[in-house]
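Before relying on records like the one below, remember that each one covers exactly one chain. Contacts with other chains, cofactors or solvent are not represented anywhere in the record.
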Amino acid sequence: MNLIKNFICLSILTLIITCSSTEKPTTTNMTRVNFIGDSWLSYPVSKDLTDELVNLFPKNDKILVENLAKAGRKIDQQLVLVPNTKPDIFIVSIGGNDIYDWNHLIKVGAESDITKREQKIDENVKLVKTKWMKLIQEIRSKSKTNTLILTMGYDYPNLGGDTSNCPILQKLFAECKHISKPLNTRATKKLTQEEIRKVGNDIMDKFNQSMNEISTNKEYKNNLIYIDLRKSLTDKDFLDEIHPSQAGFQILATKFLKKVCENKNNSELAICEGK
């Protein structure tokens, strides 16, 4: 009888050890993707670009996604928050809160002289470009030698005057008119909707130009890719003046990933598998 009891106990013990020692999934062979930046990657009131990109990634266990972005973040704030995780891919969207800084837009709108207004815009874009270059250097210092940095410019803002799709919570606790409202806060003569659109688009063109210039720097050519997303959306694809709707982000995600994966140098990337 004791022999039978011992056999049963030994069998149960063996089963417990076997179950508890089952191998856990390893991240060694996984592609680690870090999203860092602003509300285009982390929009608290709707699906964002991160959500839509991840939805397009291959459905397998080869990709580990970490979204470390935060709405409202500026370049200086991101500079000290670059993770030391040494991912395989960084996807970065930032600079919008710098080029469309509320106080800066107030000053731009208050300047009635068109030439001086453009000078203020140029000075700010130049400053933002300098900050962006510092950020790229910091990202590279926290990366592996072959880490790929995928960046983007923003599309033209929704400056047709209609922000009726703006989420209720945002209307109550935040702002829907991030560009037109500050531009007219201290304007001696209210800017027309056409003038507001011109200012907003000019800023976006200059920002994208600076992003492209950074990406074509020989120092970065092997691991920095900039994707131009202008002319992807129409006003109806936005919730407010600067944030696309979920449908808008779907359009941007599709274009972004297509542009990345059609580059033959990226065909072996885990995020491009099957694309």
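The two ends are 65 Å apart (CA to CA).
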